[in-house]
Amino acid sequence: MREPLEAAQVRFxxxxxxxxxxxxxxxxxxxxxxxxxxxxxxxxxxxDWNLPEVKHxxxxxxxxxxxxxxxxxxxxxxxxxxxLERVTDLQxxxxxxxxxxxxxxxxxxxxxxxxxxxxxxxxxxxRRNAKKARAEG
Length: 137
Fold this sequence. Notes:
By secondary structure, the protein is an all-alpha fold. The chain has helices at residues 2-46, 51-98, 103-136. It is elongated, with a radius of gyration of 33 Å. The model has no long low-confidence stretch (mean pLDDT 84).
């Protein structure tokens, strides 16, 4: 029983390491994007632009920033979803391997026990009523 838990812990550690690698990669790419923007801003600041050109350039930069932010947001959401699915799958496999009942199974068993208890109560009442009828009659 200890071996499956250790294996699950090792796998969970691997998932965490993979998440850290992806996060570091995202951070490196974000820094690279920021450096690109800083470089563009330095170029802009060195040149003497008239106001309409600056507005146009800044508008383009803002659009690019919005696009990149949406792209990274989508990637982060995809990563989060995949990580949650992996953890859930790992948890499900660990529970199945250990032979422990899931919450749904326990709830189903509880409902079945309640149903059987009600049947027994009805049967017991029926027996008592039948005994009373015999005793009176």
